[in-house]
Records
---
Amino acid sequence: MNLESQIAVLLLAYTILSYSIHVIARYLKDLIVNVLSIATGIAMAYLCFNARGVAGLIGSMGVLTLIVSLLIAELYRVERRAMFSMLGVYFVGTSILLLITDSALRLFIYWEIIAMVMIGSLALYRSNDGYEAALKYAIICLPSSIVGLFGLILAISETGSLAFPELLLGAASLSKALMAIGFGAEIALFPMYVWLPSVYVGMHPLLLAVEVSSILPATSYIVGTIASMSPATALVISSLALIGSLVGSLSSIVQGDLRKLLSYSTLSQIGYIVLGLSAGTTLARSYSILQMIAHEIPKASLLLISFALLSRLKTSEVNSLSRLGGSYKFVVIGSALALLGLPPFLSFWSELYIFLGTFSAGTPWNILAIVYFTAIVLSTGYAFKIIYTYAEGAAESERIGTDAMGLLILLFFLLSILLSPLQSSILQYFLGFSP
Amino acid sequence: METTTNLLAILSLNSFVASALILLFRRRAIAELLAIASAILSLAISMYLISLPYLPIEIQFLPHISLYLDRLSAFFSLVVSLIGSAVAIYSVDYMKNAKDFTRYYSLISLFVGAMLNLVLASDIIYLLLNWELVGVCSALLIAYWWERKEARRAGMKALIMTRIGDVGLMAFASIALYYGESSIPAILSSQQLSLKLIPFLPLLVLAAMGKSAQFPLHTWLPDAMEGPTTVSALLHAATMVKAGVYLMLRFYPIFLGNQAAVAFLLAVSIITLYLSSLAGLVSMDIKRVLAFSTLSSLSLMFIAICLGEFYVALLYLFNHALFKALLFLVSGRVEHSLHTRDISRLKGLWGKGFKIETAGFLIGALSAAGLPPLSAGIVKEELFVGMIPHFSLLEYYLIAGTMSFLMAIFIMRPFVLSFLGRTSNEGAHDKERTPLMTGVNLFLLAMTLIAIVPTMIISRYLGGSGLKLEIETLPFLGVLLGILCAFFIPRTNVSISNIMRKSIESSFGIDIAYNRIGEVFYRYISMAASKLNSGKASQGLRGMIAIVVLIIIALVVFAP
C-alpha cells in the first residue's frame, strides 16, 4: 500500500470512528474525538516524516500545529470541539494527499474536498461573519476551480496522461495557465484575494492556524509547481503573486483588526512562496518550501494569540495586544520580527535564499527579485505596527500573564528559532537538497 | 591549534548561551553574574587570541556558518568585549531598580554576542545574519523603556533606518553568492572575483551608511538616546555603529578599487561631520550632544578609510571606543542621580560633588575634541597629515581648521555649561552609593589617559609604522580656539530660538521630511492599497475572468 492509500485509509477509518463516537458517546464525544484526532495526526505525521519529500515537511508541521490547536481547544473548552477537531484533521489529511498524489483526477478531487472543508469550517459556528466569508469564498473559489478543471481536462486531452505533474510537461501553455489561474484563487492570488480577509475574520483562529500550516502551503506548492512548468505561466503567476505581496504589505499597515492584518500579511507571504517555486532554480524552489514552514510558525502563533485575545478580551483589535503579558509578549514581538525575515528566525534563511535563487534565474527574474525585495522592505510596516501597538499600551496595568495557553504557544513559536540553525539539515532530509 | 579553535568557538557562542540562560533563570543575581562572566570570558579569550602568532585561522560549524580570526577581527573582538565587560559591570548599579532586568541582560549579552560573531564571520551570509541581529538587538534595547513614546519611536526609527542600509549588504551578499563565493577571505584573495564585485561596492557603502549613521541615514542615532545610557555606551563605543566601519575595513583591500564609491563615502562623511557638529553645538540634551559627537567621529573614521589611512581609522576607532564609553557612562552616572539630561538644568556639577564625573567628562571631551597629547588627539593629527596629499592647501586648511574648531567647541560646551559654573539649587546630588559605576568610570578614565600606550602597541600589532607624533599647526590651533571659545559661552548672551535649534538638530529639516514621507505613505499609499479590496466577491470573480481573457488573448496574439 503506498503512502497515499495509507493516508486515505487512515482518514476514512478516522471518519467512521469519529462519527460513531458522535452518535454513541454523547457527553464525552468532544474529548474522545479530540484524542482520536491527535492520535490520527501523530499517525499521519509518522507516515509523512518517514516518506520525506514536501509532504513530509508540510505534513509534519501541519500535524504539530493541529496538536497545539487541539490542546488549546480542549484546555479552553472551545464549543463544538468534536467537529472542530475533525475539520482540523481533514485540513491536514487532504493537504498531505494533495502533495503526494500522482493522479491529476484525484488531485482535483482533493482540491474540491479542501474547498468543502473550508466552507464547513467557516459555517461551523453559524456566525454572520462565517457565513459571509463562506459565501465569498464559494463565489470566487468554486468557479475558479472549474477554470482549473477546464485547464486540467485540456492538459489530459493533449497528453493522454493522468499522471501528475508529468502531464504538465507535454501540455500546452494555455492549459497550464488556466490551471494555475483557476487553482490560484485558492491561494488568494491577486486579484482573487478578496475572500481572504473575510475568511480570517470568519473562521475560528485555532482552525485558521491549522489551515495556514497545511492547506495554504500545500495549495501554494501545487500552484507554484504548475506555474513553473511553463516560462510564460511562471512569469504571469509570479507577477500576480508579487502584486499581491505589495498590496498585502501595504494594506496590512492600516488594518485595525489583528486577524485582517494577518490575512494581508499572508497575502504578502504567499507571493514570496509562489515566486520562489516558479523561478525555476533549485535554490529558490527549495527555500520556498522552507519558507512555507518559516512563515507558518509565526503566523500560526499570531493566530493562536488572536484566539487568546478573543477568548479573554472578546476582541481581536491590534490595540488590545498590549493587554497580553508574560510569554505572550515574547511571541508577539518575536513573530512580528520573524515575519520580517530577521535573524535568528528560520525565515531569515528562506527569504534570503529565495531572493538569491530568483535573482540568479536571469532576466526578467532578477527584476522580480528586486520587486520581491521591495515587498519585504514594505512588510516592515505591518510588523512594526504589531510591535509598536503592543508597546504603546505596555504601560497599562492589568495584563494577562503566562498561562497554559501562553506556554503552549511559546513552545510552538520557539521552533522558528530552534529550526533556524538546522535549515540545511531540514532541506537535506526532506528534499535531498544541499545548499 | 585545537585549543585555539575551541577558544574561538567559545568566544563565538558564550554570549549567546549566557543570553539564553538569563532568560531561563530569571533571577537578578544570576542575570548579572552571567552577563558579566560571559563578557569577561570573551575579553579573556580575545586577549589570548590577539596574542597568537599564527593568525589567520578559520573554522567551519555549518554551511555558511564559519569563523575567521585575523588581526583585524581579533582587534575588534578585543574592543567589543572590553567595552562589553565595562558596560555589564556598570549595569549592576545602573539597572538595579529596573523591573524587567531579564530582558535587559539577555539582550545586552545577545547584542555583544552578535557583534562578536559579526566581526568574526568568515562567510558573508553569516556576517549578514549577525549584522541583522545587531540591528534587532539595538532596536529592542533602544526601546527598552517602551512605555515611553519617545523610546518606542526611537527603537522603530533605528530599525527602519538601518534596515534601509541593510538592503545594500543583502544585495551585495546575494551578488557574491551569484558569482559562486560567500567566503570573505576567498573573495578578497581572488583577484578575478574581486574585479567582478568592485562595481557593486556602493552597496556596501550603503550598508555602512545605515549602520554607522551617515548622512542621510544619520537621524536615528541622536534619537537612540532614549534607551538606557549603558545601551548608548555599548551602541556608540563598541557595537552597532562600529559595524559599518568594520565592514569597510574588512573589504578595504577591494574598496579602494572603486573610486566612485570612495568619493561618495568621502562626501557623505564630510557632510555628516559638519551637520552633526552644528547640531551638537545647539543641542541642550547632554546625551544627544554625545550622539552628535559619535556621528562626527564616525565620519572621521570613514574619511580616514577613504583617504587610504587604514591604520589611522583603526586607531581612532580604538580611542573613540574608550573616550565615548567614558563620556556616556559618566553622563549616565549624572543622569542616574539627577534624573535629567538637560544641559540648562545641569549646572555646577563639580560643585555638587560629581568630582570623578567632572574629571571623566573633561578627559573624554578633550579626547573627542582631539587635543594632543591625549591619544585621540595624536591620532587625529595623523589623519590631518594624511589629508594633505589629497586636497589643495586652501581646501585642506578650510576643512581641517573648521573641523577641528567645531568638534572642539561643541563637545566642550556641555562640559563648561554643566560641570563648571555656580551650583544651582535644583537637583541635589543624592548620596546613593554606586561603587561599580564609579569603578568603571575610573577605569575608563585611566584607560583614556594612558591610551597612547595601547594605541602604539596596536599600531605595531596591525602592521602600521607607529604614530609619527606630528602636530599640524592649523588644526591644532582650531582645537585650542574651539576649547577656548567654549569657556566663553556662559559669558555671552548668544541664544537661538527653539525653532532654529530644532531645525539644526534635525539636520535642517531632514528628520521632519522623513516623518512627512512616513505620514504620506501611511495615509495615502497604504490606504489606497487597502481600498483595492472592495470586499465584494464579484470583484474577485471579475478579476479572475479578466486574467483568463487576457491570457487567452496573449496566447492567441503571441503564439508562434
Note: The CA atoms of residues 62 and 213 of chain A lie 5 Å apart.
---
Amino acid sequence: MVAPFLRAVALLALILVAAPAAPSQGTEIGAETGAGPGALQWRAGETEAAITTWREALAAEGTPAAERARLAYNLGVAAHRAEDPLMAVAWFTACLRLEPRHRDAAANLEIARTDAELTDGDDGGPTAAVLGWARRFTRGEAEWLAVLAGVLLLVGGLFEAVRGRGARPVLLLALLLQPVLWTPLVAAHLGDVPAAHMVVEPRGLKVYPMPAVSSDLLGKLAAGDVVEALDELPGWRKVRFEGAERWVRDRGLAPLDL
Amino acid sequence: MTMNLSRICALVACLLIVLQGSLAAAPAQSQAKIDVSLTGGYAKLGEEVRIVIRAVTSEREIGPLEGIELPEVAGLEFGRVLGPSRSSRFEMDARGRMVGTTTLTYAVPVTAKRTGEFEIPPIKLEIDGKTITAPDAPMTLKVLEDIEGSRALVLDLKPLPARVYEGQPYSFDMTIGWSMGVRGGSVLLQVPWWGKQEGVIELEPQLTGAERDFPIDRRGRAALAVTDLGVRDRDGTPFQLYRLNRRFIATRPGTVTFPRTVLEVGRGRGRDALYQVVPEFSVEVIPVPEAGRPVEWTGAIGPIEVTRDAQRRDIDMGDSLKLEVRYSGEGNIEFFETPKLERVEGFERFRLLGSSDQNTPFMRTIEYELVPLDGDVTEVPPIPLSVFDPASGEFRTVSTEPMTIRVNGGAADGEDPFAGLAEEEPVDRAPVLRDIAARPATGGPVDAGRGPGLGAALGSLLLAVLGTAFVRRAVRRGGDPSGAAARARRGALRSLERELKGARQPGDMNLALERFLAARTGTPAGEWIGRSRLEGAPDDLQRSFGALRERLDRAAYQGGGTPPSPDEIVACARRIAQEVR
C-alpha cells in the first residue's frame, strides 16, 4: 500500500519539477503545414497585414486561451522586430500570463527586457528561484495543486489514522509536500494585479490627479511598471498609483490580461 | 373680613396683570424678524450683486434658516447660498436695561447674463418649522451695460470655430487688459468653465514672453498663467495687455459650452469696479467621418505641415544618415502615430538603426538614423502621412520632399555593407529572438486560468485536517492501531501464507490456520483447537470453514483423507479476513 503511494508522490514531484513546457516552435522557419493566415503574411513580408490579422483574431470573442497566447507571442515578436522592445515585453508578458510555461515567450521576454533596459529584479537568490518556479503555473493550475495538497494530506492522515505509527512517514511526506503545492497559489495571490497594464512609453508616464494635463503633476510611472487600471476616458486611463486613484495618458499603457 | 377680601382681590388682579404681560411678551421674543433685500438695485453687466437674507431676534440663540427656495428668473443666475454669518449686539434701552439681538445673515450671489430690468419674486424659507415668504413685494434689479468698462477694459476673444472634429485641437486665444488710467484695485478674470468642461483635454500651453499669474478666483486661490504683452497703444490710449492662449482637444462628440467670461477691474476705494464681458458661446464636436478614411490614417488631424532635413547628405558607405522629419502646424501633432519607415516604399534599401521623437507645442521632430544598404542609393524617399483636413472635411496625404544623398565607396554596388561585418567582428553572442508560432492552437478552454477556486483549495485542506482527526479518533476507540494485536491482525493473512509455504504435514497447516484465527480474533491460539465454528460469519462461510477444518483434522489426527491444499486454506482465510470482523 505504501509503495504505490510513494511512487505516485514521486511521479507528481517529477511532474512539478519538470513542469512540462509548451512545445518550442523556434526552429520552424520556412514552409510550415497548417500555418495560420497571419503567419503566411508574415512569411511573405507583409508585416503590417500580419499584425492586423493577429490583432483582429485576438479581439475576436471565444478565442481559446492557447491561441490568444500564440497571438500575443507573435505580436511580441513583431513589436520587437519593429524596434519597440517595451511593447514586445508587454506582449510576451501577456502571453506568459495565459501560458506560463511558453518557453519561446520566456526566452524572448528576457531578450526584450534586456533591449528595453529593464531590470527584472531577479538576483538569482533562492527566493527568486522559488518565485520563478511558482510562476510557471496558471492561477487555475495553482488552485488545483492546492486542492491536490489537501487530498494528499487527507490520504496521508487517514492512512496514519488507520495504520498508526507505521504510516507516519506517509503523513510526514504529505505534510512536507504542502508548502511545495501551495506555493504557486500563494505566489499568484500575492503577485496578482487585477486588470494589469504595463507602461510601454520609454520615457515613462506622468501621473495626474485629474484627466487634464493642466492639473498638478503628481509623479511618474517608469517604463515597464505594471499598474492596475480602474477606469478610462478618451485618451486617459485611471490607475492605482501609490495606493491612490490617479490619471495617466493611455497612449503609453498596454493591457496584460488578454 | 372686608379688608382681607379686598386685599385678596387686589393680589389676584396684580397676578393676572403680570401673567398677561408675560404671555403677551413671549411670542414677540421667539419670533425672528426676516429681512430680504438686494445689495443694489442697479448693476453693471458682469457685476455680481447679492440677495441678503437677515434673521434678527432678541433671543440668544436662533436656529438656522432652512429650505431657502430661490426663484427662477430668465436672464439671471443665482449662485449657491453662502453663510450664515452670526452676529450679536447688546445695548441699553431707555429704562437702562441690557437688551441683546442676534442676527443670522445669508447671501445669494446674483449675476445677469444680459442687460435689462429683472424682477426677482419673493423668496420662500423656513424658520422654526414655519414657512415665510419675503420680502412682501418683488425685488427689482436693473442691469446696464458698463459703457465705461467697455471703453477702459479689453477682453478680446479670437473667434473659435463653431464646429470641430473629435481630436482636432482648437485654441482659446484672448487678449485681456485695461487702460493705464483706471487701474487702482483688484483684478479678476471669471472663467467659470475652466477645467469643468467634460470630454475636453487641455494641451500643454505655449507661453512666449514674460508670464504672470492672473487671478481667476475672488479669494485668490486660483490663477492662470498668461503672457505679459506689456503696455501697448490702442487708439492713442496706453493699455496694459495680457494674452491668455490655450489649446484644447475634444475627445468625444457633443457640445462644449463656454459660459460668460468676465473681466473685473477695481478702481480703488470708493469707486465702482469696471466690467467687460464675453457672452456665453459653444462649440459643436463631431466625429471624424468614416467615408474616405484611408487604412493608413493614424489619427492625424490637420492642418499639418511636414519638412525634412539632414545634417550630412554626402556619406561613406556604412555610415549613418540622421534624417529629421518635422511636423508642425495647428493640427494634433503630438497625438498621431508617425509613419513606420519599414512600411514606406523605398526604405527597404535602408537599415533603420533607431529613431527618437521630440514633442513641443506646434512642433514634433522625429529623427531617424538610417544606413543605406548599397552604393546605388541616391535619395531618401518621401515619407507620406495621411491627414484629415477639417477645413475641407477630407483626407489628404502630406509628404516630405525626397532628399538627394550620395553614398561614397565602400562595398561594391548592391552589396549589403553589413554583410562582411559578421565575418570581421562577429561575435555578438547575444541570444537570438525566437521566431513566430505559425500554427494556430485550436481547441482548449477559452479561460485557461480557471481553477476550482481558493475556497475549494482551503476547503480541501480543512477537510483533510477534520477528516483525519475524525477517523483517527474513531479508530483509536477500538485500540491503538500500532499495538501488537492490531499489527498481528493486519499481518495474519501474510503470516498464514508464509507458514503454509513451509508446512510439510497437515498438522503444521492446521497449526498455521489456528494461529491465523487467533491473530484475527485476538484470542489465544489454543482456543481454536478443534473449534469449527466462526462467530459472526455468514452461513456459507460457516459451512466451508467447517468442511475445511474437518478435512484438516481428519488428515492431521486420523491420518485419513486428502488434506486441503494451501490455496484452499488461504482462500477461506481471505474470506474470513474480509467477512468476519
Note: The first strand of chain B starts at residue 33 and ends at 38.
---
Amino acid sequence: MRLLSPSLRRLALTVHIVVAVGWLGAVLSFLALAVTGLVGSEAQTVRAAYLAASVITGAVIVPLSLAALLSGLVMALGTPWGLVRHYWVLVKFLLTVVAVALLLLHTQPIGLVATVAAERPLAPAELQRVRIQIAADAGAAVVLLLTTTTLSVYKPRGLTPFGQRARRRRVPAS
Amino acid sequence: MAPASEGLDREPAGTPRWVKVFGGVVLVVVLLIVVLHLTGLGPGVHAP
C-alpha cells in the first residue's frame, strides 16, 4: 500500500483516535448499564438498562469497533509503522480483532435479554448467568481497550522478526 | 504528539521483555477462562 500524504495521515489519525476513544466511552456506558441491569432492584430500571444497552450495542459500539479496526488498518498500512513490523502495532491489531470478534459474538445474549426485557419485567434471578456474562464481557472489553489505548500512547519499542529483516534490507550493514 | 515515525530506526533487536510479559499474562488469562469453562464456574452461557 502506498504511504499516506502528511495531510491524509493527520486526517486518518484524527478519525482513528475519535472512533477508538468513542468505542471505549461507549463500552464504559454499556458496562454501567450492564451492572445496573444485574444489581438493580427496581424492575423498570432493569428493563430500561437492558433496552438501552441493546441500542448502544447496535447503534454505537458495533459501528465504532468496525471503524476503529478499519481506520487502524489504514494507519498501519499507510504509514512507515506497518502492520507487522512493530510488536506494539501487531499486538494492538490482534487485541482489536479479538475484541471485535467477541463483540459480534456477544450481541446474541444482549439481544436475548433485551427481547425479554421489552416483553415483561425480568425476575431478579432470571437469565442470571447470561446477565453476569454480559457484565463480565463489558468489564473485559474495557480492560482490553485501555490496553490498546496505552499501547498507542507509549508505543513500546521492539521490532518483529519481519520488521528486523525489513530494516536490514533498508539499512545494509557496513 | 510525537511524530508517528519517531524511533523507527532506533529499535533494539530481539523480542522485548514487555512482549514476553504480555504473552505470559494473556496465556494465564486464557488458561483461567478454559479452566472456568471446564469446571462450569464461568458464566460462558449464551442462551438458557
Note: The radius of gyration of chain A is 20 Å.
